[in-house]
Specification:
With 323 residues, the protein is an alpha+beta fold. It has 3 domains: 3-61, Winged helix-like DNA-binding domain superfamily/Winged helix DNA-binding domain (Arc Repressor Mutant, subunit A, Orthogonal Bundle), CATH 1.10.10; 70-267, BirA Bifunctional Protein, domain 2, CATH 3.30.930; 271-322, SH3 type barrels (Roll). It has helices at residues 3-14, 23-30, 34-44, 70-76, 90-96, 149-163, 213-216, 235-256, 262-268, and strands at residues 51-54, 58-61, 81-84, 106-109, 131-139, 169-172, 176-179, 182-192, 199-207, 274-280, 283-292, 298-302, 305-309, 315-322. A hairpin with a 6-residue loop joins strand 8 (182-192) and strand 9 (199-207). Helix 6 crosses helix 8. Residues 23-42 bind DNA.
Length: 323
């Protein structure tokens, strides 16, 4: 770990969101000057960390920060784990190193400077607040076998969150997880270009743990995080559990396809039975949402009958009417 992050993490370990810690105390603990402490505090703002500074009181975290325990990850994950304090993108790292990876290898970071969501959207990644992860997986039967994979990944994450006592969860086609009708997590699956017949994939996922107010204001849709729960899951334990569940479910998906996951998906699908619009620029189709089929396509009851729609450039929106 670089000296830059060593000092920052030491400061964060001493700070709390419940009370102020004086600059003098921080300087004594780290054996550096108070001006150096101030410089480190100011630099943390560039990584999305909100720290209150009050003259005569000291410093206090605006919202709790929970860092991953690298030692625990290395001991308990069954695959290689690449862990970074900051990185442009966990997906980009795995895409670059695909030829060296095995199914189940995972990359984790506390901060992403160029995190990405679906359709090229930015995924805000403030340091230490959330989970940013990318898993490598190889499908031997090629790209056709990957149809509906994002739905399986979403089901896996929801399964783990439920096991940890989280309620109020919902799924939105094709790659979003909601908590109390607000977005909690997202999934981005990317293909590694290769001449091989096998399909090499990077499965990126982000889960909101504790959103700061300043970062939340930058998001253009309703969001949720796990900090509002009576007992927030431990970040490291959550990553380990999701990794285990993903490996189990991806092997099951390879063997049996999406059909084994349809019931689980539809039980938590937030649009089931509602009137929705499918946006397929420049076209739009409206109908009653009837769930998904075995290829992961959206089933829509329209004036023309039951129709299936699938594609990377489709967006699904509710019309706020119930069937």
């Amino acid at each position: 770990m670089s000296i830059q992050w060593h000092n920052k993490r030491q400061i964060l370990a001493l700070l709390s969101s419940d009370h102020f810690v004086s600059g003098e105390q921080l300087a004594q603990e780290l054996a550096i000057s108070r001006s150096a402490i101030q410089q480190q505090i100011e630099a943390m703002g560039e990584f999305g960390i909100d720290i209150y500074s009050v003259k005569g009181k000291g410093y206090k975290l605006a919202t709790p920060i929970c860092l991953l325990d690298e030692t625990q990850l290395l001991q308990q994950l069954s695959n290689r784990c690449f862990y970074f304090n900051d990185i442009p993108s966990t997906n980009a790292f795995m895409l670059t190193h695909g030829q060296e990876l095995k199914s189940g290898d995972i990359c984790l970071a506390e901060y992403q400077s160029a995190g990405r969501g679906r359709r090229g959207r930015q995924w805000l990644s403030p340091y230490g607040h959330h989970i940013y992860a990318s898993l490598y997986w190889r499908l031997e039967q090629g790209m056709p076998q990957a149809m509906g994979l994002s739905l399986v990944v979403a089901c896996s994450i929801v399964t783990v969150l439920k096991q940890m006592g989280v309620s109020g969860l919902g799924l939105k086609w094709p790659n979003d997880i909601y908590l109390n009708d607000k977005k909690l997590a997202g999934i981005l699956i990317e293909l590694i270009n290769s001449a091989e017949q096998a399909c090499q994939l990077v499965i990126g996922f982000g889960i909101n743990m504790s959103m700061s107010a300043s970062q939340g204001e930058l998001i253009d849709q309703p969001w949720s995080d796990l900090s509002t729960l009576e007992s927030m899951p431990d970040k490291t334990e959550l990553v380990i559990a999701v990794h285990k569940q993903l490996k189990q479910d991806l092997k099951r998906f390879e063997a049996a396809g999406l059909k084994d996951f349809i019931d689980a998906w539809q039980a938590d699908d937030i649009f089931m039975g509602r009137e929705v619009s499918l946006l397929m620029a420049p076209n739009e189709v409206t109908g009653i949402y009837k769930g998904i089929d075995e290829q992961g396509a959206v089933l829509l009851q329209t004036a023309q009958g039951l129709q299936a729609f699938v594609g990377g450039e489709i967006s699904l929106r509710a019309t706020n009417k119930m069937a």
